[in-house]
């Protein structure tokens, strides 16, 4: 029987999980085609308030395992970059800020069964983020997902006042990894580029790429 969440439509998945780091807190999760609803169960809240993660803000979801081999729990982590208010020099503005929510699957006694549940949730979230249609009747598994995407990153380490490499490592690479995109990172001047490419530099490299100029040229 399908569960409905108001105007959000059919609930595709529903479950109760812990969180990481574990503090004895339990949450009920409900996944619709557009949102992930998170409601605390333990400790019982004073109100029916729930956190809603819009899937349009989600970049990826992955499964994890505890570093402790005796822990039979599996985990899945949801990475999102929602728009949030922030104070600026004049007035206020909005910017995307990273959030990572990790949930602990521990209903089964063995890791294999818990991992199966975690992988199902991760696959469902990825399908919705990528626009792959699923329903409550769909047999959800990783087989529904396309092959991971690949990117070629061109980096000018002298760009951005010499901070391009640091900015790439602290901002760009984590987001690409969270989105399950594999990449090759090379400095400008390398040949043999194929597929998608992201230029991490000022306007110069982008103009050279668009015009087909040799990146070794001055």
Q: What does this entry look like structurally?
A:
The chain is an alpha+beta fold. The chain is 20% helix and 36% strand. It contains three helices and 14 strands. Strands 6-5-4-3-11-8-7 form a seven-stranded antiparallel β-sheet, covered by helices on one side.
What topology does this entry show?
Layout: E1 3-4, E2 10-11, E3 13-19, E4 26-31, E5 35-42, E6 51-54, E7 58-65, E8 74-80, E9 83-87, E10 92-96, E11 99-105, H1 111-130, E12 150-155, H2 164-178, E13 182-187, E14 196-200, H3 203-211
Parallel strand pairs: 12-13, 12-14
Antiparallel strand pairs: 1-2, 3-4, 3-11, 4-5, 5-6, 7-8, 8-11, 9-10
Contiguous runs where pLDDT drops below 50 for at least 5 residues: 189-195, 201-218
* Number of separate helices: 3
Average predicted local confidence, pLDDT: 82
Order of helices and strands: EEEEEEEEEEEHEHEEH
Helix content: 10-25%
What composes the largest sheet? 7 strands, antiparallel
What is the strand content? 35-45%
Summarize the structure.
This protein has 218 residues and is of the alpha+beta class. Helices cover 20% and strands 36% of the residues.
Keywords:
single chain; 218 residues; alpha+beta; 7-stranded antiparallel β-sheet; 3-stranded parallel β-sheet; 14 strands
């Amino acid at each position: 029987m399908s569960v409905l969440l108001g105007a959000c439509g059919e609930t595709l998945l529903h479950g109760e999980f812990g969180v990481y780091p574990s503090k004895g807190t339990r949450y009920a999760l409900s996944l619709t085609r557009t949102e992930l609803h998170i409601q605390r169960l333990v400790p019982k809240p004073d109100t029916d308030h729930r956190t809603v993660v819009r899937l349009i803000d989600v970049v990826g979801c992955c499964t994890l395992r505890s570093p402790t081999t005796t822990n039979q729990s599996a985990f899945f982590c949801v990475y999102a970059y929602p728009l949030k208010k922030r104070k600026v020099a004049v007035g206020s503005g909005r910017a995307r800020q990273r959030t990572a929510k990790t949930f602990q699957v521990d209903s089964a006694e063995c890791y294999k069964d818990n991992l199966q549940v975690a992988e199902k949730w991760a696959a469902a979230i990825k399908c919705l983020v990528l626009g792959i249609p699923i329903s409550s009747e769909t047999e959800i598994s990783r087989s529904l997902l396309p092959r991971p995407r690949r990117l070629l990153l061109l980096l000018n380490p002298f760009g951005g006042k010499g901070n391009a490499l640091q900015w790439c490592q602290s901002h760009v690479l984590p987001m690409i990894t969270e989105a399950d995109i594999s990449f090759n990172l090379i400095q400008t001047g390398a040949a043999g580029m194929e597929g998608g490419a992201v230029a991490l530099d000022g306007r110069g490299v982008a103009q050279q790429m668009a015009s087909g100029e040799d990146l070794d040229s001055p």
